Amino acid sequence: MKEYGLDLSNHNGSVDFNAIKNAGHSFVILRAGFGSSISQKDTKFEEYYAAAKAAGLKVGAYWYSYAMTAAQGTAEAKTFLEAVKNKTFEYPVFIDMEDADQYKRKHGMPSNDVLCKICENFCAYVESKGYYVGVYASESWFYSQLKNMTRDYDLWVANWGTNDGSLQADKSGSYNLHQFTSMYTLNGKRFDRNISYYDYETVIKEKGLNGFSKTSSNTSNSTATSNKPSGTTLELVVKVMQGAYGSGEERKNKLGTRYNEVQDMINHIASASATTLANEVLSGKYGNGDTRKIALGTRYNEVQAIVNKQSSKKSNDEIAKEVIAGKWGNGTARKTALEKAGYDYDAIQKIVNAKMK
Question: Which among 266, 132, 135, 124 is positioned nearest to 212, based on CA atoms?
């Protein structure tokens, strides 16, 4: 099998996950964070995770390592697990072993044996907690700094060739996951792009790894029609956005008879105009606080900005009094000014006419 995906961190800023899916990608691998403190959790991880799941993309995760000792590798593993708790991943979780910002070199590059031990400690600890683990590095690092790793963990390998955005070589005989460029563009933005040659999702789910319960293929279809989770549509949408129901067929099976109503709301949030969503927020459709933020996902900021603007508007009766006081001009100029400010000219003029009788 072959499927394409992107890897993302907060450096990618605002991301349209439906556009990623529609461009032919099946998965994303998200940076959960870096270092050994939970304060270094990636600031976009939660948002990206919820949006990717809502778009029906498979998800993996990685942790950029700043470890300088084997013990620090274990410490980073524990922090990583804290960052990804209560989530499910259809793709492996990786330690990212490189020195992109020259931190290791500036602070005394560990020996190759220590670099290998850092990876092994991280992977062994995370694996012991029920995860499918792997190591990310460049092909040159795997052939030099990491060539003496004692365990054959899954490899996610960066080999960009001339890095022109295209896949230049089939590496399926060498490793399962290939990051082949950092110059892929989508909607004017640049991304790292990957190709997978392995059915990670099936293996992970069958073995009950990465937050999934061990499943049997002969029971999944029979349970789909009998499932009917409780809660409002909005409550279920929030749970989907948090990853509780997975993606694809897993989501269909878990939501059962509630799938269509829930997925319809998710699709509507992804495709409706920000103004439409803002009006629905004002009518109470998406609740308040964290519920609203989670349900709207990556649309939250643009929608909330409109909601805030509309909430600060004066009532039609207040504006009518201002019109009578001459603050909004006359005739066409009044109509233009009121409509530009977001007010209903006809409704306000009707109030004005009534007051002037």
Answer: 132
CATH number of residue 49's parent domain: 3.20.20.80
Pair 118, 67: CB distance under 8 Å: yes
**What is the chain's length?**
357
- 256-287 residue pLDDT tens: 999 889 988 988 888 778 888 988 888 889 99
Copy the structure tokens of residue 101.
């910002």
Count of CB atoms situated within 10 Å of the CB of 85: 9
Structural domain of 282: 219-310
Return the H-helix or E-strand segment holding 79: helix 70-83
Q: Give the pLDDT mean for 16-26.
A: 95
pLDDT band at 244; cut points 50, 70, 90: confident
Query: Cα separations (Å) of 32 from 39, 81, 94, 262, 313?
Result: 11, 9, 10, 27, 40
Whether residue 214 is contained in a domain is answered as: no
The CA distance from 116 to 94, in Å, is 14
What is the Cα Rg of the chain in Å? 26
Domain total for the chain?
3
The secondary structure of residue 353, as a DSSP letter, is H
Please check whether residues 99 and 114 belong to one and the same domain. Answer: yes
Give the rounded percent of residues in the chain with a pLDDT score beyond 90.
68
The torsion region of residue 312 among left (phi > 0), alpha (psi -120 to 50) and beta comes to alpha
- CA distances, 341 to each of 75, 280, 303, 312, 334 (Å): 55, 20, 18, 12, 11
